[in-house]
Design goal:
39% helix, Nucleotidyltransferase, domain 5, 11 helices, 2 domains, five-stranded mixed sheet, alpha/beta
Length: 331
């Protein structure tokens, strides 16, 4: 009896690179992670990635069906070419697919990390859980609410990519048209990311504290460098009024952004992941987000969706990279 094939998966973030060996059931059979080279050159980054992939292949418990890589930034899917990745700019223009196929002699597929997180949750996380409970998912939209806000959509089992592989940038949809709308790092104003990301929550808290109008807030007793999104969530859990008001704004913006998703993509599942989502879940804010969405959604059929949190945690990128391999091999 032959040994089942496995996928080698990579999750290449701005700070860490994870690699794993994963079977068709989504089980991680072996994994490791390494920090990225600090201020590294293109060659140092590529050498580090190749070393990690080589080690993973050495730990494979069966024939390697292919390599899947989830990368933090826009990627052209046919050649796996990075385009202006904000946290890995030294790799701009690198085409991973031909590079690694020549080096390792197996098929290689590369995708944006948020797109592949959607694929991982569909096959191995919240989507699988729903299917196991008798409700298979047709269209899943994944939103990561973390340092930034990103997204990915899986339709009928495959990632929906658009013309250039750049769909689902939910973080840069407009949610605030007021004169006080905040600047976003993308260059626009009023984006969802500028209101609801961990970076935004920290920035808004520091701005409000700097005004001197919130001396009674528990956040005011902290050193300014210790005021981050986690501190805001902790304070909100203790009913601190400043923290509660900041999160109210983030929740309202998310409800608007997710309503836009419902009207554009008609998903039957929206999955929220990332560190900010963990804070929202602890404070039972997903229920409030859904309530606000229901007041905006145009029809009863549009309202037929599940809003839930991610199931795969830090493994979501690896799971999605492996799912990409299995998905592509079956086409």
């Amino acid at each position: 009896m032959s040994t089942p094939q496995v996928a080698v998966a990579m999750d290449w973030g701005g700070t860490w690179t994870r690699t794993a060996v994963i079977n068709r059931q989504g089980e991680i059979l072996w994994h490791t992670r390494e920090p990225n080279p600090k201020n590294g050159t293109k060659e140092e980054y590529l050498d580090n990635a190749e070393k990690l992939l080589t080690t993973a292949i050495e730990h494979a418990v069966g024939p390697v069906a292919g390599i899947g890589a989830a990368v933090a930034g826009p990627v052209e899917p046919t050649t796996g070419t990075f385009f202006q990745p904000p946290n890995l700019m030294v790799l701009d223009g690198v085409a991973f697919k031909p590079l690694w196929e020549e080096a390792f002699g197996v098929p290689v597929w590369v995708g944006n990390d948020a797109n592949l997180a959607a694929l991982g949750e569909h096959y191995f996380g919240a989507g699988k859980e729903s299917a196991d409970n008798g409700r298979p998912i047709k269209t899943l939209f994944y939103v990561t609410v973390s340092t930034g806000v990103g997204g990915g959509v899986v339709d009928k089992g495959s990632v929906f990519l658009g013309a250039n592989g750049l769909t689902a940038e939910i973080g840069h949809t407009l949610v605030d048209t007021s004169k006080d709308a905040l600047d976003c790092q993308c260059g626009s104003i009023g984006c969802l990311e500028a209101t609801s990301s961990g970076t935004a929550i920290e920035r808004i808290a520091k701005q409000k504290l700097a005004s001197g109008d919130h001396a009674d807030s528990t956040l005011a007793s902290l050193k300014i460098e210790d005021v981050d999104s986690e501190a805001v969530f902790d304070a909100a859990g203790k009913k601190d009024q400043l923290a509660v008001s900041i999160l109210d704004g983030a929740v309202t913006a998310l409800a608007i952004g997710l309503t836009n998703i419902v009207h554009l993509f008609n998903p039957d599942m929206i999955v929220l992941g990332g560190g900010v989502t963990e804070g929202l879940v602890k404070l039972d804010q997903l229920r409030r987000i859904r309530e606000q969405m229901m007041g905006r959604i145009m029809s009863e059929l549009h309202k037929d969706f599940q809003l839930t949190s991610a199931r795969l945690g830090d493994s979501v990128g690896l799971a999605g990279a492996a799912a990409l391999v299995w998905d592509q091999l079956e086409k």
